[in-house]
Design goal:
This protein is an all-alpha fold. Helix content is 78%, strand content 0%. It is flat, with a radius of gyration of 16 Å. Its main location: membrane.
Length: 80
């Protein structure tokens, strides 16, 4: 697979939001680490990067995103 095909797959409508969020988190992590010098904000941005990358990776497995969404809804859906 070449860079042209990889870019086309990254900008696929299914993956475009995860790609944008991941790219934004990378920039935020760099700004926090190099300009602001905040360790806590950098760690939060890195955690967001990992979550976005995980969500992006799930788009390659059929029905994986739906399964993870349903499991998290069932785990965290509580009545007060």
């Amino acid at each position: 697979m070449g860079p042209k095909q990889q870019l086309r797959m990254m900008l696929d409508p299914v993956r475009v939001y995860a790609t944008a969020i991941y790219g934004g988190c990378v920039l935020v992590a760099l700004v926090c680490a190099l300009l602001i010098h905040s360790k806590i904000l950098t760690i939060i941005a890195i955690i967001c990067e990992i979550c976005a990358l995980f969500w992006y990776s799930l788009s390659y497995i059929p029905f994986a995103r739906r399964m993870v969404s349903e499991v998290t809804i069932r785990l965290f859906d509580t009545e007060i």
